[in-house]
Amino acid sequence: xxxxxxxxxxxxxxxxxxxxxxxxxxxxxxxxxxxxxxxxxxxxxxxxxxxxxxxxxxxxxxxxxxxxxxxxxxxxxxxxxxxxxxxxxxxxxxxxxxxxxxxxxxxxxxxxxxxxxxxxxxxxxxxxxxxxxxxxxxxxxxxxxxxxxxxxxxxxxxxxxxxxxxxxxxxxxxxxxxxxxxxxxxxxxxxxxxxxxxxxxxxxxxxxxxxxxxxxxxxxxxxxxxxxxxxxxxxxxxxxxxxxxxxxxxxxxxxxxxxxxxxxxxxxxxxxxxxxxxxxxxxxxxxxxxxxxxxxxxxxxxxxxxxxxxxxxxxxxxxxxxxxxxxxxxxxxxxxxxxxxxxxxxxxxxxxxxxxxxxxxxxxxxxxxxxxxxxxxxxxxxxxxxxxxxxxxxxxxxxxxxxxxxxxxxxxxxxxxxxxxxxxxxxxxxxxxxxxxxxxxxxxxxxxxxxxxxxxxxxxxxxxxxxxxxxxxxxxxxxxxxxxxxxxxxxxxxxxxxxxxxxxxxxxxxxxxxxxxxxxxxx
Length: 523
Prior knowledge:
Layout: E1 10-30, E2 35-56, E3 59-83, E4 86-105, E5 120-141, E6 147-169, E7 172-175, E8 181-201, E9 204-221, E10 224-242, E11 247-259, H1 262-265, E12 270-273, E13 276-279, E14 286-298, E15 305-326, E16 331-354, E17 359-376, E18 382-397, E19 403-417, E20 421-436, E21 441-452, E22 461-474, E23 478-485, E24 492-498, E25 503-509, E26 514-521
Parallel strand pairs: 13-16, 15-17
Antiparallel strand pairs: 1-2, 2-3, 3-4, 4-5, 5-6, 6-7, 6-8, 8-9, 9-10, 10-11, 11-14, 12-13, 14-15, 15-16, 16-17, 17-18, 18-19, 19-20, 20-21, 21-22, 22-23, 23-26, 24-25
């Protein structure tokens, strides 16, 4: 980025423990032949403890993170089929979730950000959410096949986000820095009406839909309140054309408006890693976009030859991007709103069954292009162009003998272009073999090869082999398994990635070769 260049080296060892208690109740009551009542209740409580020993540019850092999650989720649904072709549904839902976190780092690397003579930092965060929603839904199917759907709903959501970031000398508090604290409540009430009509016209099906939304937003941070009322309409139109029993074309267009969430709006920086801070946009916003798609199908699932192709084009008229300050020991990331982002995605898959060799051939091709803009280190707006191409081929046998195989390869080409161009190509290939010697004894072999083009020759290829055998002593009663993993004893795996601001090489330590004997007994 301009003249700013540096290399960071991390050596990370992490441990985590988690205890989860989860309960769920499903109740269905058929009041009459045409009336049904359903209830679903969920309760979840999770305690997590994460710790890490991190060497950052040869400095030793210890991270500690404690997280508690509590979830209470209740849903009621009443269904009434009051006529042969008419159904009325009404549902209600209530969710209460709390996720407090305590995060600490035993070293202080932010001398360029803060003047205090601290030697460690802590952050406490409390994120809680309450949701209450009710929805009424009417479906009316006409004699000619047309379908009318009406839906009215009201959703009330309240998010509370409180964060306290503090600088410490040993255990003594030195400061709660200004701009690094949050105490906000964000409430959004969405009253909506949806009208959808599906016209059946011989080989054509026309879908028209309009969603009407009235939003009531309220934002309160450290007792300073602001309000916003917003009304918008979301139109959608789609057309299905069944040319014949083999050919089908589907198209659609959607104009969408998305209300900003609490994670888009918080005004104070929140620590999201040992060297990174992020903050939101601080103002109400609804982001507008449109989406057009075209899909073509030839054949049907299970046919000897099947083709599926789709194209999706998206246009964001305004979108959340970032204004980042990136230095070697820290990064500050502010959300900003920028106009005009485009993406184009094309994907095709082909399936063909070779009857003579009893093998199915599959090929997938994909292209994704994304253009967006951001700001880094007080630069002007930087235009970023991302390109990803995917090619995938597979052969899978369907022999009626004891032996079958599955072989394939996938190539990914990635390119990021701004003031400079970076690109790389990755490949993964596999060969799976299956031996069904009898109903009681079988062997499965799975092998993989990974290739990373931008790594050095000594580290750009990796091979893996797994094996599992199964022997049934007594059917549905007693079974023995013998499995071997990482039989080539590959000890590390490196990968490579790029973005508009960095090139990253990561090395993972892998579990060594091991063999496991398992027994399954059913009673």
